[in-house]
Amino acid sequence: MKTKASPKTPLPVPSADHLEERSRRAHTEPMSVLALGDGLYEIESASDHTYLVDLEGGRCTCPDHVFRGVRCKHIRRVAIEITDGRTPPPGKIAVVCHDCDDAVFVEEDAPEPHYCDDHTIWPGDRVVDRETGDRLTVVDVSELRADAVRLEATGRTVAEYETNANYDGDVPVVGAIYPHATVAPSGVVPESLKVYVFPRTRLEKVISRRSRRKRSTAA
Ligand SMILES: [Zn+2]
Ligand SMILES: [Zn+2]
């Protein structure tokens, strides 16, 4: 699993004059924070030292905490980043979206693949089949895995189809229809309602240009 640390940059300082020294340094020093799970965080400091913070236990492996017993700048930094939404709270970890580089906070034991809000698919969304380039419309997003869903027509699981050989079997399946020819002058053509089942990772959500632009200007 690809986990993601917060960028090693100083944070904006709220009214710096009133902060004591450790608190000021917790904000202003470049540190990166990586959530390891189990409430543990790995801090890479400005001087390239690596420390471990146990947030709920209020402990850190740095000398300032170990020898002086103080709430050091690393513990403070983890707390600040969680409050700011830059680092996941205990119980969650930051992972990289399957389809882009965005960080996503997920439960520690959440199964892969993980998707950011933009790449999460819902019924009605347009997706592209990576194998054929075809566009489809999502009708159902299941929690069942591709290696567990058996198709009646052939008796094979979704994962066993040759066309799905490039995709892991332990991902959820998605039902989708081809949006063309859904309605004839006489009404809906039943054949056009056939739902095809894909491993989730074979489909990529179509994100409109407008929402993509909005994302890049917001970043
Ligand atoms: Zn420390
Ligand atoms: Zn994404």
UniProtKB/TrEMBL annotation:
Keywords: Metal-binding, Zinc, Zinc-finger. Residues 51-83 form the SWIM-type domain. One of its GO terms (molecular function) is zinc ion binding. It holds the Pfam family SWIM. Residues 17-28 have a biased composition (Basic and acidic residues). InterPro entries: Znf_SWIM. Coiled coil: none annotated. Signal peptide: none annotated. Residues 1-30 are annotated as: Disordered. This is SWIM-type domain-containing protein. It comes from Natronococcus pandeyae.
